[in-house]
Amino acid sequence: MEALVLIGLTLVIVLLVDLWLAANIMKSDKPKRNRYGWIALIFLLPVVGWIIWARMGPRGMAKAPASPEHSK
Question: In whole angstroms, what separates CA 53 from the centre of its chain?
Answer without folding.
Answer: 9
